[in-house]
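cron nightly-structures :: item 1 of 1
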Amino acid sequence: MMTIQQKMYETTVKAVGGRSGYVESAAPVFSQKISTPREMGGAGGEGTNPEQLFAAGYSACFDSALNMVARQSRIKIEGSEVTATVSFGKVEDGGFGIGVKLDVLVKGVDHDTAVTLVNGAHAACPYSRATRGNIAVEINVLEEEHSFGGGY
């Protein structure tokens, strides 16, 4: 098991009510209602769910790692986008698990360079390191015409 040798940041989030409750943090203030999706037997609703939160964290962390790898490699990119799709379902042993698909767009470089940077990001990203060998992670390096556009 890998241990943190030099802690740089720490945060605490409390969950109340599981998939039909809320999550909150005191500092910085974060509060979000959690709703179980209809596809999982829940009522749906306006809240987010753990899979969305994981996808948000993984995509942001991976994009940050990608930009760090580009800077360290002295490769100028014109921007990047990482879209994480998290799947939830039954696994071989009858329990439940998640899988992740990352669609990664690296702007301003050729495809081979983009692949090299994405591989470096996958090696460096703390989420990738934490999930390696534990869940299926599929990574697709996109061509620029596949951009997902601005914010949602």
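cron nightly-structures :: done
The beta strands are 14-16, 22-25, 30-33, 79-90, 96-107, 137-142.
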